[in-house]
Amino acid sequence: MSVVIIGTLDTKAAEIGFAGNVLEAQGVDVRVVDAGVMGEPGPEVEPETTASEVADAAGTTLEYLREEADRGEAMEAMGEGAAEIVRRLHGEGILDGVLGLGGSGNTSIATAAMRALPVGVPKVMVSTMASGDTEPYVGARDVTMMYSVADIEGLNQLSRRIISNAALAMVGMVTNESNVDAGERPTVAVTMFGVTTPCVQTARERLEEMGYEVIVFHATGTGGRAMESLVEEGVVDGVLDVTTTEWADELVGGVLSAGPDRLEAAGDEGIPQVVSTGALDMVNFGPRDSVPEEFEGRQFHVHNPQVTLMRTTPEENAELGEIIAEKLNAATGPTALALPLEGVSAIDVAGEDFYDPEADEALFDALRSSLDEDVELLEVETDINDAAFAETLVETLDGYMRAAGRAP
Question: Where would I find the UPF0261 domain in this sequence (predicted)?
Fold first, then answer.
């Protein structure tokens, strides 16, 4: 087993050397990738991949980065280079896990490399940044972050313990057989939100009864991005995109956007997809007092103390319909759009806070008028969480999967 350690040897050679010693004492081979830019590597470690080679892999040179002395540019370049290095090592079968340790600079570099690897490859980052907002470092990958507590500057009783724990955790990941059944069942990705949970639960249970492997993604921005990345990697055979709410946040300015590429991966890969309008009645914010002033006067629903929902307007819904139609029209594989005509979420039904037939109809009308004929349009006289709606989604996707030779 081989673990790659990514670190800045000009400032963290002793700490990286210590981590390598812990790994080697457990019988794990170690390859060190030097991501340092400004100084020469310390004497404690001889890297298998030099900082110059990392810069070269990014299409630049170490000399140039030193001359420019632009920290941001250097960190970005070394992150790109480190990503290219670990992709190559993994492809050659000589990388079983990646360990990183450092402050904000090497955290940026090492996690950029980690995010370039497939889900399932062990990734552990010991970082001074792990107690804050880790989304920029983790992204949509299974990066494990461990807070260093103190700065990673010298070896002491605290840093030795934490670095040792991280190294031993990596040893456990790469040397023990997980006995997880990867399975050979076709895999379906499904998107869910709290307000679409009944629909997804019914659909998941039905799909599993049919023999599909089902992976559910929480549509919280990173969830949507994670699903799309796994589709691009070929992990997913079909998509049941029940909950497209992330597009409401992208359009209006909420906190759970998945970015402008959401709803593209399945279409680009040509795999079967059935899409719905789950939770497009809402834009997500944090606590009520965190909602930007520009939205004062809008309709809100406090989901919990940390989550405030804002009702989308008819105008926003009409624009959402046009955007979603454009994404689906570009699909190269079998695609259907299912409309729950009596409500797109648990709180968009008669008697609930976000019940607004006018706003829903603006969404549906825009979709009807903008969809190409190649996209199958299903209109169901239920709300999204009715079991009959879930059955329609499942039957449609299963039909596509069978026609494509992807069914169990």
Answer: 2-177, 185-399
